Amino acid sequence: MRTPVPEYLHEILESCRGNTGGEVATYIPELGQTDPDLFGIAMCTPAGTVYSTGDADAPFTIQSASKPFVYAVALRERGLDVVNFHVDVEPSGDPFNEMSVDSETGKPSNPMINMGAITTHCLVGDSGLSPMERSEIVRRELSRFAGRELSVNETVLESEFKHRYRNVALASMARSNGFILLEPDDAVWGYTRQSAIVVTARDLAVMAMTLANGGVNPLTLEQVVPQWVCRQVLSVMATCGMYDSAGDWLSNIGIPAKSGVGGGILGALPGQVGIGTFSPRLDQHGNSVRGVEACERLSRQLGLHLMELPAPSIDAIGQQSTTESGAVLVALQGALTFPSGELMLRRFEEIPMGGDEIVVDLTLVPSINVVGDRMLREGLRRLGRDGHEVTLIDPYERIPNPVAHDRSEIPVVDDLETYEEA
Ligand code: GLN
What we know:
There is one protein chain. The protein has 422 residues and is an alpha+beta fold. The chain is 41% helix and 14% strand. It has two domains: 5-302, DD-peptidase/beta-lactamase superfamily (Beta-lactamase), CATH 3.40.710.10; 319-421, Transcription Regulator spoIIAA, CATH 3.30.750. The protein is built from 15 helices and 14 strands. The radius of gyration is 25 Å and the shape is elongated. The relative contact order is 0.12.
């Protein structure tokens, strides 16, 4: 059989193709040269499979879709406190090129609008670097997110830098308020070169999946940024990524996302999918019209909204039974997280005090998160304290270091047979 996913993606593309609303950006004259009919969609999974359709390999400049990645690099390099000192994380509700600052401190509102993005660009690398050196670091770092060497479109860079005055005004204000130390022209040149990095919809999908994958590129398996950075970046994308339509986007589509005036949109749903779309005609907010529609359909049809009810965990804890040798067997089933962990503890609670042998089977537990791990170890500790002898069946080492919360070791076997033989 052949997987239906590529056909499905193609249907999405065809169902949005007729939407020719919006205009190609012309305030950067070179962007006005883009073929407005180009349209591509790509989707990347945590396992690194990339599905694509239409013009998913057509090159375009990344523009503002670069902002989350440069923010991520700044966070990794400088830490959260330093970056927070320079740029806020408050949605501005303003267009991307507005002078949006905190009314008391004058700090740029967030790193997803131009003023905050120029500020975060300046946080990459040593302050003594030349604008070219800094923007080369940015290009190389974005390449790591994409899993391939990205280049710069010099014509777009030149075209935008000629019309840089609004961004220079934003950089000058950020400098005057004390959040940028570089010369405004230098800061804007580097930021403009960052915006002129060339990507495809396929690249955006892989870059998005890297953010949605705790910082590990699904193709190269390289850890580009740590997990905490991704959580921070995705949060800010969710609240500020789509500028003055961010609230509408979050409630309607519910995927942390970022658009660029080159026509790209990337969407990153933690642990699930990276989406990249390319279609150059933009709405009044500067977001790709067909890209927004494609994301809307994908979100609806694939159940990708962040606030969607999570997969049921209520039945995740399997039945309690007795082994041949008379031990109490608790076979857990499904991911161990807070709600399923709570059920597990209640199941443990039903076991009366006294010297039973208890076997807890993790064979059908695919994953255990931080709190699931704590709950399991603490549950095992309490069962031990109640006078039970507890053994774990853990063939896939879901509990890599089998020590309960009181540091007592928990015996582990690979299957029930081994347990019965012992
Ligand atoms: N480089 C563009 C600018 O500064 C990026 C804007 C965007 O993509 N929204 O205007």
